[in-house]
Amino acid sequence: MKIFGSNTGVNGKKTTEMNPIFISGASGSLGLSVAEYFSLNGYRIIGTYSSEKPDRRLPETTWLHWKSGDLQLTALLTEALMEESGIQAWFHFSGSFWGGFLAENTPAGKIRAQTETNFLSAAELCPVVLPLLNKEAHSAVVFIGAQAGLEPAPQYAAYGASKAALIHFSQSLAKEYSGTGIRVNTLVPTTIDTPANRKQFPEAGFTNWIQIQEMISVLGFLLSDGASAVNGSVIRLER
Q: Model's pTM, two decimal places?
């Protein structure tokens, strides 16, 4: 699916015709790679970061500071997005990982933090982003779930519950927007091969981890006309 240097994007449209992609949580390894890929394929990118602005220079990319729960930053984000003409896709990568403790030993603050970053961040952006999506071009909304959100695991109750809430929320949105031209799906990968995950799990075998390019390929498909009937799906990526 590599089409760098072409004037045609992943939908077969000339780059001058393509609408922007909004990527929330675009400053991590996955978000930056996705932003780079689609920007090099002619899409204008609007990406958010929560702490430090990425120093990577990408074509046609605007960076906006946003944190879930910050009303002032959300108001500024809303104002900026309303200046765009017909957002083509929303990829939501905001989230965090925490676990390794029994539920009885999990601080309430950690439960709130996992809920905030993994679920409420998506719910908070819905009234901002969804009205701005281009309904005529089969816009794609993609959330990132987790295996723990589908299959409960010991010592990851808070993380799994927050991701389960996100998956349920995504499927509810898919039903609400069915037939409108907006398609909502969730990707559920096993461990993604990123520097952060390698550092956190140095003893793990990386062979079966999901590569970022594989994630990008699936996102490209979900954005394409070929996925016009894919809605409300939980797409598992595993080996």
A: 0.89
